[in-house]
């Protein structure tokens, strides 16, 4: 068998079924529950090799079923250790799956639990942003498969609630993203905690030179599986570009959503504050929207994602925290409010639509300052994206209507800024209280005060009246 196996979407034999891989009846039953009968090309290529115990580097377009490509053979391999004992010692961690984001970890865990539901194998997920107590309880009860983000995994190792001494299989899902997020030191620490003899699997939509360098450091004679061209975008996703002025981009997003009648769309922003502002703008435009980014708590992020899946929210405005691995069934469209700084992220973003063979639209807004980013993206995907005019959109420019200086004289109503003391042509003017413009007026004399003349003419023999002081302060107490 060659160490490099190249396959294409057309080469995958449609007659191949999951039964042909020798999977357990319990696994096949779970797949039938999910409605799966035929494997995708990456699954058809990867499952037999992983079952042989070989190390694998798997690259495929996002949305083609990489998760099942490694989780199904892992479950099959661990069945020989499956048992129903209540003792935690009989359920050590035998497989570790690492993901870069909490959302992806949670999704992979749901898939693994679904595929192993009819087996005695146990699986759990650990990630940050939530209470450690339930995770600790699950780990101490014993689990064979752990899906985790690197940081929280090391927290549990430090708390001695997790032991990796018997781990037989290591999976890095979206490993290139973990490097982008600065997880390399954590990954090295985790690898050092694992047994030397183990099976290593790496799956991603893109393999950068840094990833290949990392893979060479711990993979043993790996088989490389590439389904379709590396870093390619799916043919069933229609990609278009609209050139829009920077200040008109929010209005353009609202126009696209209304014009196309979109009821479920992910909009990607490069910054957390940009995502929040766009979400608020869409809400003001009458679009049900919510933002998901790193400043949100994990509970808020999961609630927003669930509401989006259920259709309660029409637009999910996200940073790249949601670009990897999120599987939204039949998502018709994704929009890039900002072009990503990293060209590979473009592939992952638009991979949220057009999944499992369905068609989808990928819309991107760009400005003159995005020329370099756009060139990098087109160089990576090896084709030019269609530039179109955004029909029916008339941007509202702030300079279209400026109040004239003589508006007040001509009877026109004052601008909002003028109402609050601000000039349309200069800095804000502070309001002046008219009381301070009055001339000085001496305070009138009262019966309780004497004039200066009366005080001067008062006889010197007059004894000044002594001020009474309270006894507490040294005065004379009352008799």
Automatic annotation (TrEMBL):
GO terms for biological process: response to temperature stimulus; ribosome assembly. SMART domains: DEXDc, HELICc. Residues 398-408 have a biased composition (Basic and acidic residues). It catalyses: ATP + H2O = ADP + phosphate + H(+). Residues 394-479 are annotated as: Disordered. One of its GO terms (cellular component) is cytosol. It holds the Pfam family DEAD. One of its GO terms (molecular function) is nucleic acid binding. Residues 236-401 form the Helicase C-terminal domain. InterPro entries: DEAD/DEAH_box_helicase_dom, DEAD/DEAH_RhlB, DEAD_box_RNA_helicase, Helicase_ATP-bd, Helicase_C-like, P-loop_NTPase, RNA-helicase_DEAD-box_CS, RNA_helicase_DEAD_Q_motif. Its EC number is 3.6.4.13. It comes from the Bacteria. A motif (Q motif) lies at residues 16-44. Residues 47-225 form the Helicase ATP-binding domain. Residues 16-44 form the DEAD-box RNA helicase Q domain. The keyword Ligase does not apply. Keywords: ATP-binding, Cytoplasm, Helicase, Hydrolase, Nucleotide-binding. Belongs to the DEAD box helicase family. PANTHER family: ATP-DEPENDENT RNA HELICASE RHLE (PTHR47959:SF13), ATP-DEPENDENT RNA HELICASE RHLE-RELATED (PTHR47959). This is DEAD-box ATP-dependent RNA helicase RhpA. It comes from Noviherbaspirillum cavernae.
